[in-house]
Each structure stands twice: as C-alpha cells, then as structure tokens.
Amino acid sequence: MSHAGRILAALGLAGLVSGAGIVGCRGDNELSGSVSELFPITDVSRVEVRRNPEALQVSYFRNNGLDVDLVARLTVDTEGVDLKPGTKVQLGGTTPSGRDRASVVHVAAGEPARVFTPVERGDLVLDEGGNPDQPTRGDFSLSFKKGDGYGAGRSLEGTFSATALDAGFGPDLGDVVGEEPAP
C-alpha cells in the first residue's frame, strides 16, 4: 500500500473509532432531534419506563417551575414483537391488527396535549431489561410523516435508562381481590 493509502486508511480508522466514541458517550435519558424547534427537549429531569403485555412506554419529564412537563411519551405497541434486549423493533407502520406500531405525545403545563402525526420510520433497541422490575436501558430514533399534523416531517431520538414499572391493567373481572368474596 502506498504512503498516501496508509494515511487515508489510518484517518478512516481514526474517524471510525472517534465516531464510535461519540455514539458510546451519549448519555442516558436524553432527547434530541428536530422536534426541538417546536418545544424544549433538553433538561430532562426524570424518565419513566412502563411495560405490560401489550406495550412499552417511555416517558420523559422536565421540571418547569411548579409544574412538570411531559416532554415526550413514546408508546410502542408490542403485538407480534418479541421485545427482548438486542432486538430492533421497527416503529413505523402498523401492527398485525392494524394499530399504529408507535405513537408520541407531548403535554406541557397549561397547554393542550399534542399528539404527533404518525411515525413514518424508525427503530427502538433495548440494551437490557424490558420487563417490570428490571433495569431497562435502550434507545430509539424515529421520524414523523410529512404533511399536516403536529411534528410532521420532524425527527426525535432518545436514550433511556430506568427500572421498568408494571403498567398492568389490574385484576380481570371475576378475579378475587380480597381474601373473602364480597357478600
């Protein structure tokens, strides 16, 4: 290999390594993307992960004076998906029964809830956990469909790390809640 070729190869390798360092240095519980043109997405104060047999939900909260804003809530319908660490879940499109695979909402204090336009494409990957009471860590990246609607044509990326909470629906009708049935 020529001297110039070795220099280019070394630069390419250095760029690859430094790029991997940038990705690896991304912190937990952060949001980024062009939705920042609509509302502030930095200064996340708390992240909550909820899980039940039907969905995974990641909520990003921000302290706002005496209020707490729901900066963004990503809900992923897990129908037909084996949600386990390392699996890449496609966020665009619909589930086998026709529901949106993913949805995003934003609720700031004193404002109406804003439901984003449908997700066009993107993915979510869990690095660990994913079930109630498990430390759960992962990331997602998505873009919203172009056209009309809140957030149309914009992007949202995030990392998350929190112990997943049980988002179960409670006992089924007919289940005994107490030790003795009611009279």
Can you describe what's shown?
- With 183 residues, the chain is mainly beta.
- It contains 1 helix and 11 strands.
- The protein has a 6-stranded mixed beta sheet with strand order 7-6-4-3-2-11, with no helix packed on it. A 5-stranded antiparallel beta sheet has the order 1-10-9-8-5, with no helix packed on it.
- The longest helix is centred in the N-terminal third of the chain and has 22 residues, at 3-24.
- It is globular and about 35 Å long.
- 22% of the residues are buried.
- It comes from Corallococcus terminator.
- This is Lipoprotein.
Layout of helices and strands, plus pairs?
Elements: H1 3-24, E1 31-32, E2 46-52, E3 55-64, E4 67-77, E5 88-90, E6 102-107, E7 114-115, E8 119-128, E9 135-144, E10 155-163, E11 165-166
* Residues in helices, as a percent range: 10-25%
Q: In sequence order, what are the helices and strands, one letter per element?
A: HEEEEEEEEEEE
Count of helical segments? 1
CA-atom Rg in angstroms: 20 Å
* Lateral arrangement of strands in the main beta sheet: 7-6-4-3-2-11
Oligomer: single chain
**Largest β-sheet summary:** 6 strands, mixed
Count of domain modules: 1
Note the gap between the termini: 88 Å
Contiguous uncertain segments of 5+ residues: 4-24
Number of strands: 11
Judging from the principal axes of the Cα atoms, what is the shape?
A: globular
Average predicted local confidence, pLDDT: 85
Strand content: 35-45%
Organism: Corallococcus terminator
Protein name: Lipoprotein
